[in-house]
Design a protein that fits this description.
Length: 109
């Protein structure tokens, strides 16, 4: 799994976009699915006196039929939140005639 993600942060209106590519080294896939979770923390409470979770959502592709070795999912997701820091966790899944495999990337800040 590889990709590029852009997180454009403003005071309130933010943007989360990028591409995630899953590649199979051996075998013939039948379906792919990619997703990425955004977990953001920022100012909360009366007067913004505490740091807390301000956003938690996942953008996901549908299961896509393909026998190619590579599947790329592009996304563009605006969101509103106060963000001081965030974590991104990519996930992928591949199916073939023998079964399936799901995997999770390391969350990045």
């Amino acid at each position: 799994m590889s990709g590029t993600v852009y997180v454009g942060l403003n005071l309130w209106e933010n943007n989360f976009k990028g591409t995630i590519t899953t590649q199979v080294q051996k075998g013939t896939p039948t379906h792919f699915k990619n997703s990425i979770q955004m977990e953001a923390y920022g100012l909360v409470g009366s007067g913004g006196t505490y740091i807390g979770k301000t956003a938690d959502f996942t953008v996901t592709s549908d299961w896509t039929a393909s026998n190619k070795s590579k599947f790329t999912y592009s996304f563009d997701q605006p969101f509103n939140a106060s963000v001081a820091y965030y974590y991104l966790t990519p996930k992928g899944a591949v199916k073939n005639a023998s079964g399936g495999l799901e995997f999770t990337g390391t969350g990045k800040k």
